[in-house]
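Lecture 7 notes. Example A: sequence first, then its structure tokens.
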Amino acid sequence: MSTSFTGSHSIRYPAPDLARGFMLLLIAVANVPFWTALFPASGEGGAADQWWVLIRQLFVDHRAYPLFSLLFGFGLMTMIRRRRDAHVAARTRELDESAPGLSPEARDSWIAGFEKEALESGRALVRRRGWWMLLFGAVHALFFMGDIIGTYALVAVLCAGLIAGRRWRLMIVIGIVQQVLAFAMLLFSEFAAESFANTGMYTANQADNTTISGLVGWFYPLIGLVAWVPSTLFTLVLSQVLPAVFIGAALATTDLVSSPERHRDLLLTAGILGLALGALMGAPHALAEAGFLESAPTGTAALHEFGGIAGAIGWLALLVLIAGPPRERLGAARTLLAAVGKRSMSAYVLQTFVFIAVFGVLGLSGVEGVNPLLGMGIAVAVWVVIALACWVMEARGRARGPLEVLLRAAVAASAARQILPGVPVAPSAQAPMAQASGGIEEEPPADRETQD
């Protein structure tokens, strides 16, 4: 049984790690079309490719990143909660040792102050982590303009206070307003694109004139970084990321993940209905993308996008059910998935470099196009190679991947000293925290990795 960052007695639940590991497989499959689109030919393939595109559209495309968002929100709240528990417990122990004679009212007042300290500490940790993630995302964008790390970094920076303070009502309002605006904007963009296409001045073939030379050219990193900036902002505004992060944060306050054996029926129902609803909402767009329909009605792309959060909830429910409760042995498949999940950022970024190598070699070898089934096979193979590397690290006792280690060190090194009020030292002291004088300067604790 693995343990969490908070200490040797804190259980690390397998579900988040396992879900992240599987999520990275979905992301690899979903990202392949970006790379195959860089080839001169489309590589459409035959009937089998059509069916695969349909399946991918129904269950993978725009379903993987909302799953990522759910897990990210879960990780942020878990980090905040465990930091809070550790801080309040340590400060309360200090108070009881220094002033065992405090009245219950005075003691409660001090503990309430400790809660506020922990809230501020958690908020600062999440925000600081977000700024560093933004830098990581910018560097990654030099190689892959579709980087998603930057979007989650913005969520951490902008929403740290909401999540740390558990301001659920405000999160609900923000989520609803953002989704309504996003849906309206996506509908408008579809209508505008259709109207423009009807003028005869634009065709789909004109939209994609990028070739493999763009991938290996010296200017690609600059293009990637420039494109990443607006893409990161648009993803935050137009996608399911924000509400999914809020839902994931709320999930961390329940025992659905920590004790899935108590909720088997609920998880199974949510899994089946979530995937079914996501597929139903995405079906018209998916059928058109796969070539089974000549065209889809305007608005179906937006509907497909908004079905993603239902599909992501379905995937997460089933993965939590499969992961089960903490135990000594997870089994080979679960261990492999969890090994990837513990190193999710390293695995995600490594996917980019392996894809560059594979598709770069194919392009330079004269391959004109990669059909969808072959692309899927490449994605799975890339994920397997990375998963085996993660498994080797796990077997050798390396608890984190290289980027997780780097992020942890950067977040810890940039932590500011926190000034804390000194606790009363006289057993008879009855002063509440607000009236205490003096204070102590606390070294910032090392920022710890969590199940994010």
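Example B, a different protein, same format:
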Amino acid sequence: MTIADFAGSSPGFYRKTAVEQLLALAWFVEARQQRAYFDGAYIRQCFKEAGIEPPDMSVYLPRLAAKRPPQLIKEKGGYRLAGAVRRALDVRLGGDPTTSAVAKALTDLPTQIPDLAEREFLTEALNCYRVRAFRATIIMAWNLAYDHLVRWVFSDPIRIQSLNAGIASKYPKKTLVVARHEDADTLKESEFIEAARTANLLDKNTTQILKDKLGRRNMAAHPSRVTITQHQADDMITDLVANVILKLC
């Protein structure tokens, strides 16, 4: 994730004060870029990459370090966030270990898949997760994985031929031959998965993961009194990323 991506996806970032923006960028530098320290020149460049005129770092950084309690700690190598400030920003910006692991898994995907539509889905899923919209996260994660599956099948003529054989075998009453991506809409998602399994395009474990996650998507997509938790969203994303999107490439 670039600094511009981070700033654009952080709610209200461009309406925050210069101090709040500085602390948020410092958090990104530490949590996402894994830098132990930063100096005025580096944070100034971060502001520029976010599209903001940087404040005077020679004034702001020492002032934040001199506060009681301090918001920044001055070290030999530069500055770092004070512990309490870092922990608060971890919670606010999604830097707790579980959230960071899932966000990193999603953020790393664009380097492996070139499709622009999938990148859009990826960004939306990450934004939903960051603001704790877990129902939306589950729906977007499913959309991303299922779209990837369909594109993977239709990217190869032999797979298309195998899928048609699977449809004919699993659903003999359907007089259906698919030839391009749009034809997948003539099948229910569950039918597409079953036909792909029958055609040996998917193994048993991947098929079961897709069935389970489709059920969870259906549960999240309809109004109900069922509570959707962060753990469910974590599992949805990590399972689909590791066992569908990265596997089918």
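Note on Example B: Residues 134-154 form the longest helix (21 residues). The domain at 3-93 is CATH 1.10.10 (Arc Repressor Mutant, subunit A).
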